[in-house]
Amino acid sequence: MNVVVCVKQIPDPAAEQSLDGDHRLNRGGKLILDEADTYGVEVALQLVEAAGEGEVAVVSMGDAADVSGIRSALAMGAARATVISGESLRGADALTTAKVLAAAISRHSPQLVICATESSDGYTGTMPVQLAQLLDLPALTFATSVTVEGDNVVIHRQTELGYDEVAAELPAVVTVTAGVVEPRYATFKGIMAAKSRPVDVVSVADLGLDAAALEARQAVVAVETAAARSAGEKYVDDGGAAQRIVAYLEEIKVLSGGAS
Amino acid sequence: MSVSTLWVVAEPAPSGITTTSKELISEARRLGAQVTAVTWGAQGELAAVVAGDLGATRLVDFGDIGAVLPASVVAASLAALARDESPDAILIPTSNDGRDIAARLSAVMDLPVLTNVTGLRAGEDLVSEHPIFGGAQTALARLSGPGPRLFVVRAKSFPVESVAGAPATRDVVAAAPSTTRAAVIRSTHVEERSGPALEDAAVVVSGGRGLGDAASYGLIEELARLLGGAPGASRAIVDAGWVPYSYQVGQTGKTVKPELYVACGISGATQHMVGMKGASHIVAINKDPDAPIFSIADLGVVGDVHSILPALVEALRSRG
Asked: For chain B, does the N or the C end have fewer beta carbons within 10 angstroms?
């Protein structure tokens, strides 16, 4: 079974985040594989291992100057990577990203395409299903478990009240939530092997896409400081914390009685 | 473009439509537009009453679409109608199905879509508000090119306001056949929980990684019960499998606006704070004096949840 996983390199969320002059997230620093994508890579590897044949390929859109984040996915066990890169893609919106990824993925004809529910930097959350629509595939979203039964993919889909069991015939797009599986750590052997696995860097033109059709149609026009909530009282526990909290709950009248 | 016709995707619920759908209809009406609600399922008649009460004049009802994920059918049907009638914008609730519908619609109609909207400003064109960096700043965004504009709006962004309107005129429209193979819902599983619903509770007590282990979550449930509230959770402990997803507060979980929010052992990741910073009062308990949650807490207690929570539960019990 051949599985494509869409992945994204993002600025390290642990580092200070800032916007550039166009109100876009600064991506100048070191980029890492979005942790949200490691779950999809793991699910894909497990499905291919269970099938006993096929491979996992990763596809990513973004700057190709540094692909160390992509190598992290290869080190986990993905066989190959395609990175679509180009100046015209800077600031691409989700639909544009989906168009570019769809063009790249259709060259693979995978049985399954796996994406994270949303990226950790932009968290737009629409790209995977836009991609499914462009590829004319069913989308099984918000999966907390993924299995393949014959020609069908079956997921548990998170709902407000629990979960639904949802099935569709392959090929299909599946989005997975964080926590669906425990992503494996890359072994030393995996990291060494990743160095020699192919990372194919392609341009929009290579995919036969018209750059004019990919122009972003959304823009952040301004950024305002939100009405800030400020820090209130800080109480360092000296054994009286519970009493202090009870007194506070009385002050705000969540509890009756007390000094009010 | 001024705003004169707005459509709202009104997701079906046993009471007619979901709460977030109601919020969007109310806001669409406040923006001064002619409001059409769009729904499907078996609750059309009830939905027309609810939508009308909030100010929608028309309800488009695609009827029963079967036990499938609704996105492909609803998006195909909506697109066919929107091409004919060209509404200025379509507002869609943030939910699993809402996000999927918006994404399909965007691709079918070749239109960009803005998500995580928490406010809308009408002018020459609609400008949407998006919280960034944990809500410390608001990005204002605008779409360009032909419409309709597509916005996916977060829960609790707008108040629900009855205008005692007459039931909306119900147009039953046959759903357009989806060309995409269906994702079939085989079965539905409901997790039992008692007490008030998380999104409606006046008090929410949430636990995070700082609790140390799944067993300690019992203290959160007990404290919530004593305060007449609902227990919640950070994404970290949902991902770790301590509690179900339905408990999750934050960006990818529920948005809550209770009178009181008590955060226990939650450091305050951006992802969590956007879901609860609208609470009237916030109490945080955390061992780390530098935890980001303290920057928005009205009462920030630096200490160990394992000693403070049992003492607090005991103090509340002794009050009867």
From this structure: C
Shared fold status for B5-172 and B203-318? yes
Which has the closest alpha carbon to A157: A172, A177, A173? A177
Which residues are CB-neighbours of A230 under 8 A, at least 6 positions away? B295, B296
In angstroms, the CA B307 to CA B163 distance is 50
- CATH H-level, domain A3-214: superfamily: HUPs (3.40.50.620)
Fold of B203-318: Rossmann fold (3.40.50)
B143·A218 Cβ contact <8 A? yes
Q: Which two tokens stand for residue A169?
A: 């015939």
Q: Which of B123, B305, B101 is nearest to B211 (CA)?
A: B305
Give the C-alpha separation, B24 to B119, whole Å. Answer: 10
Q: Which two tokens stand for residue B229?
A: 């509230």
Q: Which residue has the tokens 């179900």?
A: B244
Helix (H) or strand (E) holding B27: helix B19-30
Q: Where are the domains of chain A?
A: 3-214
From chain A, the residues in CB contact with B285 under 8 A are 241, 245
Q: Which CATH superfamily is domain B5-172 in?
A: HUPs (3.40.50.620)
Phi, psi of A102 (to 5 degrees): -60, -40
Contacts of A150 (CB under 8 A, 6+ apart): none
Chain A residues whose CB is inside 8 A of the B298 CB are: 232-233, 248
Q: Give the CA distances from residue B62 to residues A64, B69, B70, in Å, rounded to whole numbers and listed in that order.
A: 45, 14, 11
User: pLDDT of B14-54, one tens digit each?
Assistant: 999 999 999 999 999 999 889 999 999 999 999 999 999 99
* Cβ atoms of residues A131 and B100 within 8 Å: no
Which residue bears the tokens 């550039």? A20
Dump pLDDT digits (tens) for B248-296. Answer: 999 888 999 999 999 999 999 888 998 998 899 999 999 999 999 999 9
Alpha helices in A81-179 (DSSP H): 94-105, 127-134
For residue B284, list chain A residues with Cβ-Cβ distance below 8 A: none
Q: Which two tokens stand for residue A183?
A: 């992503």
Q: Which amino acid is at A214?
A: L
Domain boundaries, chain B: 5-172, 203-318
| Residue B68 buriedness (CB in 10 A; 0-12 / 13-18 / 19+) | middle
Which B residues 205-264 touch A at CB under 8 Å? Answer: 227, 235, 238-241, 244-246, 251-252, 259-260
